[in-house]
Design goal:
This protein is of the alpha+beta class and 112 residues long. It has helices at residues 2-17, 36-44, 75-84, 96-100, and strands at residues 24-30, 52-57, 63-69. A three-stranded antiparallel sheet has the order 1-3-2. The radius of gyration is 18 Å and the shape is elongated. It starts with a helix and ends in a 12-residue tail after the last helix.
Length: 112
């Protein structure tokens, strides 16, 4: 019985460690790109952003799912960081110089 109780306590503590903060906000929007290298660059553009909890860009759907701490960052900052790496988002055109430096397979058809 003692081991069962201890096991339940450990499970509860582990579940609590993985929960999102109270100020977590989910963002979802389109980011143009083509391949796995694009995924690495898009997600990597956000890796050092304070307040970023998680980011996952889907190669097939071109949708990115992001979880942020809304007290530390906002949607506009996230769009700007992705755009600075050369990728267009729903709200921000990618940086032209960064786009030109992308690998050939990563150069997607840009919107006008």
């Amino acid at each position: 019985m003692k081991n069962l109780f201890l096991g339940l306590v450990i499970i509860c503590l582990m579940a609590g460690c993985n929960s999102a903060p109270e100020n977590a906000k989910k963002l979802s929007f389109k980011v143009w790109g083509n391949c796995g290298m694009c995924k690495k660059t898009i997600e990597g553009s956000l890796k050092d952003k304070p307040g970023l909890i998680s980011a996952d860009w889907n190669v097939k759907t071109k949708q990115i799912e992001i979880l942020i701490d809304s007290t530390k960052t906002n949607s506009e900052d996230v769009h700007q960081l992705i755009a600075s790496s050369g990728y267009d988002t729903d709200l921000q055109k990618g940086n032209d110089a960064a786009y030109e430096n992308l690998h050939a397979c990563c150069k997607y058809d840009r919107k006008p």
